Amino acid sequence: MMKRSSFPVATGLYVNYLLFGMFNIMLASHMSFLTEHLHTDQAGISLLVSAMGFGRLFTLYISGVLSDRYGRKPFIVVAGLLMAVFLVGIPLSPSFEMAIVLAVLAGVANSFLDSGTYPALIEAFPQSSGSATVLVRGFISIGAAFLPLMIIFFMNHDIFYGFSFFLPALIFALNAIYLFRMKFPDMRVQSPKEPVGDTSVSSVEQAGKLEANDRSKPRFWQEGLCLILLGFTGPTLLYIVQLWLPTFGQQFIGMTESESLRLLVYYNVGSLISVFVLVIVLRKWVKPVHIILIYPCISLLAFGALLLFKSGAAAIICASVIGFSISGVLQLTLTVMSEFFSQRKGQITGFVYTATSLSYTIIPVFTGFLLKHSQISSVFMLAIIVNVLGIVLAMFVNFRYSLVFPASRKLSPKIVLEPK
Predict the structure, then answer these.
(1) What are the tens digits of pLDDT across the range 228-274?
(2) Are 359 and 56 spatial neighbours (Cβ–Cβ below 8 Å)?
(3) DSSP secondary structure code for residue 160 in this structure
(4) Are domains 1-184 and 215-406 of this chain identical in fold?
(5) Percent of the chain scoring above 90 in pLDDT
(6) pLDDT score of 44 more than 70
C-alpha cells in the first residue's frame, strides 16, 4: 500500500535523479569545451571523472551510517546544494586544480544523495519498495537522454555551453529548498514482513510458533556479503556495455561508427522498457529477490548470443535485451538488502554503493588492460564470467530469503503500516 502523503517527497527525490542523469554524463558530453576551457586534454577530463569516483567511494559508508543516525533529509538537501555548486563552478572554474576540488565535492554529493534517497523511498513506500527504488533508474535514463538534446539546442543557437550546466544547477537548488520544507517519512517504519501492533492472542501465539519453527535470522556474512558483491557485479556489466558496446560493434561485428553508436540507443530503450515492466510486475506478481536472479539469467543468454551471432541484427536485439535485463538490478539488490537488514538502511546503502564505486574504479583499468593485450571479445568474455558470478550469488540470496522469510509467514495478520 503506497501512502499518498509520501508522494510530494517522492516527487522531489525523483526530480533529483532526473537531474543526476544529466549530471552523470555532463563532463563526457562537454569534452571538447572543457578541454579548451581548463587547458587540458581528454585524459585530464577522465581524471575529473575519477576524482568524482574517489569522493564518492570514501564517503559512502560514513554517509550511510550518519543517515541512519541523523535522518535522510539533511543529506539529500546538502547533496542537491553541492551538485548545484559543482555544476555552476565547472564552467566558471579558473583552473584545472579548482575543477578537481569541485569534482571531489560532487562525488561526496553523490554519496549523500544515494545514502539518503534510497532509504527514504523504502521508508515512504514500505510495501512497494521495489517499484519505488527501480523508478530511480528510469528517471536517470530520462535525464541522460534529455541532456544531449539540450546541448544541441544551445549549440544551434550559439548559447554559451555553460548554460547546460547552469539550468540543472538552478533546478537542483530549488528542489533542495522544496525538499527542506517537506516532511519525510518516519525512519522507524517497519518492513511489511515484520508484524507490529496489537493482535489477538491466538494470532500472536501462531506468529511466535512460526518464528521459532520456520524463520532463520538474517546473517550479514552470508546473504549480506553476497548482496554487497552483487553491488559490484551489476555495475560492472553496466560499465562494460556502456563503454565498450560501440567498440564491440565496430571491431567484432564490422559496423560503421554511426551504426555501432546506435547500439547504445537500443540498449537505453531496453532499459526504459524494463523500468516500466518492473514497476508493474513488482506490485503484484514478482518479488525483488526473484528479479535479481531472473534478470542475470536473461543477460547471460544475451551476452552469449552477442558473441555467437556476428550480425548487425543480432547485435541490435542483444543490446536491447541486455539493456532490459541489466536495468534496475542494482536498485533491487539494495531493496532486498533492506529487507534483510531493515534497521540499518542507510548503512547497508553505504555498503552496496561502496562496492559499486569500487567497480567503477577498478573495471575501467582492467578492461583497458584487456583491450591493450587482447581483442574486444575478451572484454565481453569478462562480462560473461561476471554475469555467471552474479547468478551464483543471487541463487544463494534466494535460498537464504526462503529461510528468513518463509512462505508460511503469509499466515500472519495483515497490518497497515503507517509512521507514528
Answers:
(1) 999 999 988 987 887 778 778 888 888 876 677 678 778 878 888 88
(2) no
(3) -
(4) yes
(5) 28
(6) yes
- DSSP assignment of 48-99 equals HHHHHHHHHHTTHHHHHHHHHHH-SHHHHHHHHHHHHHHHHHHHH-SSHHHH
DSSP for 314-364 reads HHHHHHHHHHHHHTTHHHHHHHHHHHHTGGGHHHHHHHHHHHHHHHHHHHH
- Answer whether 79's CB lies under 8 Å from 361's CB: no
Radius of gyration of the chain measured on its C-alpha atoms: 22
For residues 220 and 239, give the distance between their C-alpha atoms in angstroms, rounded to a whole number: 27
Q: Give, to the nearest 10 degrees, the angle between helix 345-373 and helix 376-404.
A: 160
Q: Where are the domains of the chain?
A: 1-184, 215-406
Calpha distance 344→65 (Å, rounded): 8
- The DSSP string of 261-282 is HHHHHHHHHHHHHHHHHHHHHH
Query: What whole-number distance in Å separates Cα of residue 293 and Cα of residue 33?
Result: 42
> Biggest alpha carbon distance in the chain?
74
pLDDT of 208 reads: 46
d(CA 87, CA 19): 11
Whole-angstrom Cα distance, residue 70 to residue 7?
Answer: 22
pLDDT band at 200 (very low <50, low <70, confident <90, very high): very low
What pLDDT digit, counting tens, does each position of 308-351 carry? 988 889 999 999 999 999 887 888 898 898 888 877 766 777 78
**Residue 123 CA, distance from chain mean position:** 17
Compute the distance between CA of residue 279 and CA of residue 328 in angstroms, rounded to an integer: 10
CB-side neighbour CA atoms (13 Å) of 390:
32
Residue range 1-184 forms a domain whose CATH class is: mainly alpha
Residue 212's pLDDT is: 46
197 DSSP 8-state letter: S
Q: Which numeric CATH code is attached to 215-406? A: 1.20.1250.20
pTM score of the predicted model: 0.68
381 burial level (CB within 10 Å; 0-12, 13-18, 19+): middle
Between 22-36, 54-68, 261-275, the lowest mean confidence (pLDDT) is in 22-36
Place of cell 550479514: 220
pLDDT, one tens digit per residue, over 74-90 is 999 999 999 999 999 99
pLDDT of the residue at 46: 66
Q: Which three cell numbers stand for residue 391?
A: 547468478
